[in-house]
Amino acid sequence: MSDPPISNDPALDDAVRDSRFDNDIFSRPRPSLQAPPFAGFGIRALASLIDGFALVLVAVPLDLIFGASNELASTSGFLQFMISLFYQGYLPTTPLRGTFGKYLLNLKIETLDGQQINTLTSLRRLLLLLTVQPVLLMFPFNPQEPDLWAAIPTLICFAILLGDVLLVAIRPDRRALHDLIAGTCVRLYPPKADD
Questions:
Q1: DSSP reduced 3-state for 188
Q2: Residue of 67 and 22 predicted with greater confidence
Q3: 3-state secondary structure 32-83
Q4: What pTM did the predictor assign?
C-alpha cells in the first residue's frame, strides 16, 4: 500500500516521504554559502603597488619637511616607519580587512574561517614583510664591487621574497609565507552593488 500524494509534484512527495524516516536531520549535506575565491598573485601585486604609491605620497612630504638635516632625517624615517606600521598592521584589523589598495580591489585579509583578524595576527603577518623589504633596500648588491658577505642579507631576503611569490602562484589557496605564519588568507570578494 502506498502513501497518498502530498502534493502534485512526485519529486516533492518522495522528498517529504524520505524526510519522515530520517532520524538525523544533520546527516544530509546542507547547502552552504560558498566562500569567495582566494586572491591570486596578480591582483595582490596590484594592491601592493597601490599601497606603495599611497605610502610614497606620505613619505615625500615628510622627507621635504624633515629631510633638511641629518638629525631631522631620522625623525622622518621614524615617522614613515610608524605610518607604515599603522597602514599595514592596523588597517587589516578594521572593518576594511585590509589596506586601501586591497579595499579598492575588493580583497579582504581574514582568518581561514572567514573571520576578521586581530592585531596580534596582523602584526605576525606583517613581521616578515617588514624584515624583508627594508633589508632589500638597505643592502643592495653592487656587481661592480662584488662582496659576498655584504650580499648575503640581500640574497636571503630575495630568496624569502621569491618564495613568497612562488607560494602565491602555485598553492591552491594562494597563501604566501606571511599568510601561512599568521594563519590568514586573502580573498577576492565580488564588487558590492550600489543601492
A1: strand
A2: 67
A3: CCCCCCECCHHHHHHHHHHHHHHHHHHHHHHHHHHCCCHHHHHHHHHHHHHH
A4: 0.69
